[in-house]
Specification:
Order of helices and strands: HEHHEHEHEEHEHEEEHHHEEHHEEEH
CATH topology of the largest domain: Aspartate Aminotransferase, domain 2
Structural class: alpha/beta
Number of domains: 2
Strand content: 5-15%
CATH architecture of the largest domain: 3-Layer(aba) Sandwich
Largest sheet: 8 strands, mixed
Number of strands: 14
Helix content: 40-55%
């Protein structure tokens, strides 16, 4: 082409959670059944929303407005419902329906939130990082994502001093990102840490982004803590959705709550630019929006959330027990969301370890794929070829630690236990090889 067409940030667009699937499909084509532990889709693992939620959606389909466009920012009465929910939270920031904005899933929201930042304005995010955030932030700037450390030896809690120093000595940082509950670690941050992060933002005139897609899947005994309850007077954006709560990931329905927009004129202009970008798309998906008030106001919804929290709490303990006594790894019991992370201790992995693969053609393919990859990806590929289990390497989450992420989603109790048992045996065998 006579002009270079490629955006300078195109090379930063990585999504290991999906990219690993390309190798897995090739492995499956060679005759091996695959177990997909790479993606957080409850539906794929056998969970459906309860019948009463499905019935509400079924009834909405019969309404003519479900088939048409809605307002650019979202259905007005649903935004009013959500704003009222925010305002009812004890000690929280007060907002209006104008501070609620809908998107086609949080992936769409993430693209807009980072895509309409000034290129020189950077967002400091956690490491391990969720790939959608880290890639979008890096792509908007054209440089590697800037991160602060989550400490695996302290329950994957944020290193607040690392945040403080990164902000102090890098004046390009305009905001701080956090995920609580966290993906991929399953960590849930206590109020005191969240308030420390808010105070750092306050001192340095930054804004904060909190991805709260798992905020109603918390089982650490502390209960739900929304951003509006701890952010104080700091300008901020909370990201919410129904994909993990109903669950309805295929509904592609997420929204942001803009907090303290009036506290800073520059932040307000930025927030308004996101809405302007949405106008170019006319509207977000109407049908799932229309379900929100009916579902969340239903007397059965709190019980639905509690049952799922209890289910994932039991599975978190189950997964932890399979790996807790393994000397080769560090495992923290998840406190929220539906993932757990297994981190290999330093020096455990090398480029000579293998797992036995009986099929010569498959073994040759795996050996061709592990040349020059990170040590944890090498393990993941051998695991795929030997056991047919697809997990995500921890280094794929913009992380310097070796390890992998697995899910707590398998609905079949025997099958889930077998997956964890196989993973544990593969670690032992691989490390000893």
């Amino acid at each position: 082409m006579r002009r270079n067409l490629v955006h300078m940030g195109a090379g930063e667009l990585h999504y290991e959670i999906r990219e690993i699937v390309q190798v897995a499909h090739r492995v499956r084509s060679m005759g091996l059944d695959m177990t997909w532990e790479n993606i957080g889709d409850p539906i794929q693992k056998g969970e459906l929303p309860p019948e009463w939620i499905r019935q509400i959606v079924h009834e909405i389909i019969e309404r003519p407005e479900a088939w048409g466009y809605c307002d650019t920012a979202g259905v007005p009465e649903i935004r009013e419902f959500l704003a009222a929910n925010v305002n009812e939270r004890p000690g929280g920031v007060q907002i209006t329906s104008d501070d609620i904005m809908f998107f086609n899933g949080l992936g769409d929201a993430v693209a807009k939130v980072y895509g309409f930042l000034r290129r020189e304005a950077r967002i400091l995010g956690p490491s391990p990082a969720y790939s959608t955030h880290s890639s979008a932030e890096a792509a908007h700037s054209g440089y590697n994502h800037v991160t602060y450390a989550l400490d695996p030896y302290n329950g994957w809690m944020p290193d607040v001093e690392d945040i403080r120093n990164k902000v102090k000595y890098n004046d390009s940082i305009a905001g701080i990102l956090l995920l609580s509950p966290d993906n991929p670690t399953g960590a849930v941050y206590p109020r005191e840490i969240l308030e420390e992060i808010a105070q750092i933002a306050r001192e340095h005139n930054l804004f904060v982004i909190a991805d709260e897609i798992y905020v109603h899947i918390v089982y650490n005994g502390e209960g739900h803590l929304h951003m509006s309850q701890w952010i104080g007077d700091v300008p901020a954006i909370a990201m919410r959705g129904i994909s993990k709560e109903y669950p309805w990931p295929g509904g592609r329905c997420g929204w942001i709550e803009i907090l303290n927009k009036g506290r800073d004129a520059n932040f307000a202009t930025y927030a308004n630019s996101i809405l302007a970008a949405k106008r170019l798309e006319v509207s977000s998906t109407t049908l799932p929006q229309l379900s929100i008030a009916q579902v969340m106001a239903d007397a059965r919804y709190p019980g639905h959330l509690k049952r799922r929290e209890a289910m994932f709490a039991a599975r978190a303990q189950e997964a932890y027990d399979f790996f807790a006594d393994c000397d080769a790894v560090v495992v923290n019991k998840p406190q929220g969301a539906f993932y757990f992370t297994v981190m290999f201790k330093d020096g455990v992995l090398n480029n000579k370890q293998t797992l036995p693969i009986d099929n010569p053609k498959l073994r040759e393919y795996i050996e061709s794929q592990v040349q020059g990859v990170s040590p944890d990806k090498r393990f993941v590929y051998y695991l795929m070829g030997a056991a047919g289990i697809v997990v995500v390497p921890l280094t794929g989450f913009h992380c310097s630690h070796d390890g992998f992420r697995c899910t707590l989603l398998e609905m079949d109790d025997k099958r889930r236990a077998e997956i964890y048992r196989t993973l544990r045996a593969a670690i032992d065998q691989y490390v000893a090889s």
